[in-house]
Write a structure and sequence with these properties.
The chain has 624 residues and is α/β, with parallel strands linked by helices. It folds into two domains: 48-366, ABC transporter transmembrane region fold (Up-down Bundle), CATH 1.20.1560; 387-621, Rossmann fold (3-Layer(aba) Sandwich), CATH 3.40.50.300. It contains 18 helices and twelve strands. The chain has helices at 34-44, 49-84, 92-141, 144-148, 152-194, 196-243, 245-250, 254-310, 326-366, 426-433, 456-460, 477-481, 490-499, 503-508, 526-539, 556-569, 605-611, 614-621; strands at 387-394, 403-410, 415-419, 441-446, 449-450, 463-467, 475-476, 516-517, 544-548, 574-578, 590-595, 598-603. The two termini are 40 Å apart.
Length: 624
């Protein structure tokens, strides 16, 4: 099993030392494909289809209750008016009955509103959970070159900020959207049942509110999307700078890192300010439009009421220019209920645009090209370790081939050293054995089986890998050591640690094997971390071992001890060793000399020295 995920990759210019971050997943001012993103977003809502239906039903009940209540209030006010005028058919009991019915309706509205809010809250969390699960599974299927070209912080921003944005939008806006649509339809019906002409005035005044909303949305949307992208850039810079603090400090690059952060933070500040300004501008403008319409309606309603008095209580039909006094307040109430959800719909659409921008960033990961899938026709069992390279051709990009027609036969159980100058392709070769990248052409076989015909999981569980860049997670030393093989016994763990000379330093720690390694593993030295990763690789019981400059961070004395321990550990195993100090691999059974993507020489140390070729010059150069 692979014991370190930090495989070496081609250099990417990014971060605090290089003058800029890697490419972001989305740089547009708005969703690049609105319809396509919207369709994908709707598909994600399938996981909450039942809560959505229930929310819709409960919202209808709640809003119907709230819409009918003002009509009942109109009846009560009319009845009070008749009592004031001393009409014989007027009764105070009717007023009491109306008030009781209103109270029941508002209680009903409260209960079903509460239920729909709770349902929508749970549903939005379920969608966020589903998206994060899909993102997690997707990231395990993406090839390493996907991570080579993207900032870690930007990917984390999608996991945290963009998914949270989608969750909050669903929780607040979706339920509000359902309520708005039902309210508009219900209130329109109620207004028409009272007076057609007053309803017509409300509809005619509506374009003013829509115009103001459209104006604000047009200017605010681009800043909301820019804010999401700027937030991703800030997160990426913070994550990258924090994890490389030693490098930043070593080069006294703090002023540059701070300046870069301030620049990104300033952009986030500006986009946030502008988006908040326009979103804050919306409600005052809408309130102005609503108040203006309220004044017009109040004036016309008074005229209609006076007309009703002139008619002596006659002519109160829907299409008449007359109105009962009790329904003035009711209609004005409805007019407020009618315009408010329409302007809210515009606001919801504005928020939804931002939600789609976040969704697009999520879907860019979910739609990213995965590692190629080949038909699994074989399974690796106990390996002998006979590895063959047949016409290997590979490049990190199609137009830049690094390895060209590489051929090599490695017998079982041999220690193979791979040497060559920086950038020659040494690490690339072992990455191809692990299938971190797929070949452009040719094949690699183990015991005669093409590794493309077995699953990556099956292949990697047979190979132990130790890299120069150590990786330990936040947990105890024991948990880290058993990372590749949870079933290993404590006794075997201790024996292996003794073999690699890690047991002594572990027992000197306060809690021994139960010592917790902190998040950045700074409470143990770099050399100690490397000892643990070597022990971890051995405990995984691999059939093939890969050491990519695994002893580069260890002092010379410790390296000699580890070499002896590794020699014992690698008995009867094929092993690949990359070492920058050539003196450490002179006892290798076979040495592959790599230069410019080709194996230019093969043989053991004595054979290659006798040839006085590329290896001879490379070996002697370390003593110059």
């Amino acid at each position: 099993m692979s014991n370190n995920n930090n495989a070496k990759t081609p250099p990417i210019k990014r971060g605090p030392m290089s003058g800029g971050p890697g490419p972001k997943m989305s740089t547009g001012e708005k969703p690049k494909e609105f319809k396509k993103t919207f369709k994908k977003f709707v598909k994600e809502l399938k996981v909450i289809i039942v809560p959505l239906i229930l929310t819709f039903i409960f919202s209808i009940i709640a809003i119907t209750a709230s819409i009918v209540a003002p009509r009942i209030m109109g009846n009560a006010l009319t009845e009070i008016g008749l009592l004031v005028l001393g009409k014989e058919n007027a009764s105070f009991n009717t007023v009491i009955t109306c008030l009781i019915v209103m109270a029941c309706l508002y209680v009903l509205n409260f209960i079903f509103n509460l239920i729909s809010q709770v349902l929508m809250g749970k549903a939005s969390v379920k969608v966020a959970f589903s998206l994060r699960e899909k993102l997690k599974h997707k990231l395990t299927k993406l090839p390493l070159n996907y991570y080579d070209t993207r900032e870690t912080g930007d990917i984390l921003s999608v996991f945290v900020n963009d998914v949270d944005n989608i969750q909050m939008s669903l929780q607040q806006s979706l339920n509000q959207l359902i309520n708005c649509v039902i309210t508009v339809i219900g209130v329109l019906v109620m207004m028409l049942s009272i007076n057609f002409w007053l309803t017509l005035i409300v509809i005619c005044l509506l374009p003013l509110a829509l115009f103001l909303t459209s104006f604000v949305m047009k200017h605010s949307q681009k800043y909301f999307v820019r804010q999401a992208n700027d937030l991703g850039a800030v997160n990426g810079h913070i994550e990258e700078t924090y994890t490389n603090q030693k490098t930043v400090k070593a080069y006294t690059n703090e002023p540059k890192a701070i300046a870069e952060f301030e620049d990104k933070n300033q952009k986030l500040y500006e986009s946030s300010q502008k988006s908040n300004f326009y979103s804050g501008l919306l409600m005052p403008l809408i309130n102005f439009a609503n108040n203006f319409g309220y004044v017009v309606l109040s004036l016309v309603s008074c005229i209609f009421v006076l007309k009703g008095f002139e008619l002596g209580g006659k002519g109160f039909g829907v299409f008449d220019f007359a109105l009962e006094i009790g329904y003035v307040v009711t209609f004005l109430n409805y007019s407020q209920q009618f315009t408010q959800p329409i302007t809210q719909l515009a606001q919801i659409f504005n928020v939804f645009q931002t939600t789609l921008a976040s969704s697009e960033r999520v879907f860019e990961i979910l739609d990213a090209e995965e590692e190629p899938v080949f038909e699994v026709t074989n399974k690796l069992e106990k390996l002998e370790g006979h590895v063959t390279f047949e016409n290997l051709t590979f490049g990190y990009t199609p137009n830049k081939i690094l390895l060209k027609n590489v051929n090599c036969d490695i017998p079982k159980g041999k220690m193979v050293a791979i040497v060559g100058p920086t950038g020659a392709g040494k690490t690339t070769i072992v990455n191809l054995i692990m299938r971190f990248y797929e070949l452009n052409d040719g094949k690699i076989t183990i015991d005669g089986i093409d590794i493309k015909t077995v699953s990556r999981e099956n292949l990697r569980e047979k190979i132990g890998m130790v890299l120069q860049d150590t990786w330990l997670f936040n947990g105890t030393i024991k948990e880290n050591l058993k990372y590749g093989n949870l079933g290993v016994s404590d006794e075997e763990m201790v024996e292996v640690c003794k073999a690699v000379h890690a047991h002594h330093f572990i027992t000197t720690l306060e809690n021994g094997y139960d010592t917790v390694i902190n998040e950045t593993a700074t409470n143990i030295s770099q050399g100690q971390k490397q000892l643990l990763t070597i022990a971890r690789a051995i405990l995984a019981h691999p059939d093939i071992m890969i050491l990519d400059e695994a002893t580069s961070n260890i002092d010379t004395r410790t390296e000699v001890l580890i070499q002896k321990a590794m020699k014992v550990a690698m008995e009867n195993r094929t092993s690949f060793v990359i070492a920058h100090r050539l003196s450490t691999i002179v006892n290798a059974d076979k040495i592959l000399v790599v230069n410019n993507g080709n194996i230019v020489e093969q043989g053991n140390h004595n054979q290659l020295m006798a040839q006085k070729g590329f290896y001879y010059n490379l070996y002697n150069s370390q003593f110059s």
